[in-house]
Amino acid sequence: MGDIVGEEDKAEMVVMEMQRKLQQSLVPNSNEYTVIDYNSWGSSSTKHSTWQLILDEAGFKNATESFQADKYGQTPLSKEMLIALDPDVMFLPSWVYGEVDAAEKFRDQVIDDPALQNLKAIQQGNVFQMPEALRVPIVNISLILSFT
Questions:
Q1: What secondary structure does DSSP assign to 32-66, as a single string?
Q2: Which of 76, 77, 90 is nearest to 119 (CA)?
Q3: Is 44 exposed, middle or buried (0-12, 13-18, 19+ CB in 10 A)?
Q4: So what's the pLDDT on residue 29?
Q5: Are residues 75 and 44 in contact, defined by beta-carbon separation less than 8 angstroms?
Q6: Do 87 and 36 meet the contact criterion of CB atoms below 8 Å apart?
Q7: Pairing with 142, which of 15, 51, 67, 133 sits 20 to 30 Å away (CA)?
Q8: Where are the domains of the chain?
Q9: Mean pLDDT of successive 10-residue segments in the chain (148 residues)?
Q10: pLDDT in the model for residue 144
Q11: What pLDDT is stored for residue 126 in this prediction?
């Protein structure tokens, strides 16, 4: 953005301050968790998404980072592939278009699916709904952290 408005130096300072705040707020992660985000239309974010930036900063390994991505950084993810990847942690959406409780229904559908019962994430209770506001591009993380 700094290039566009002719304020490269100011933009660089903003980015550096955001990185500083982010580093101050991170909790060191000594475990290498394999993480996946799984949405109701059966896709997951690859390394070509802003989700990857969040996982990198948190020290997590994205189970689908090497997958072929569409223009949005997403890759189709079949139930069979999800089982093969067997993530330690799953993030599901906290909002799904349609019914008011569609996200909760999707979460219950995933957790209660007989085919998914052997996933480490489900067995260990590591299935979380990620608020959509936190899945924003990395530049907004500093804004989020400023409220903490």
A1: --EEEE--TTSEEE-TTSHHHHHHHHHTPEETTTT
A2: 90
A3: buried
A4: 61
A5: yes
A6: yes
A7: 67
A8: 31-139
A9: 79 77 63 89 88 84 93 91 97 86 94 98 94 57 45
A10: 44
A11: 95
Q: For 31-139, which CATH superfamily applies?
A: Nitrogenase molybdenum iron protein domain (3.40.50.1980)
Give residue 26's pLDDT.
Answer: 58
- Token code pair at residue 90: 């799953």
pLDDT for 124: 96
Q: Where are the alpha helices (DSSP H) in the chain?
A: 2-5, 8-25, 50-58, 79-85, 102-112, 120-123, 141-146
The amino acid occupying position 7 is E
pLDDT score of 52: 86
Which tokens in the block code for residue 140? Answer: 């907004």
Q: How far is CA 53 from the centre of its chain?
A: 9
Q: Could you tell me the end-to-end alpha-carbon distance of the chain, in angstroms, rounded to an integer?
A: 26
pLDDT at 27: 60
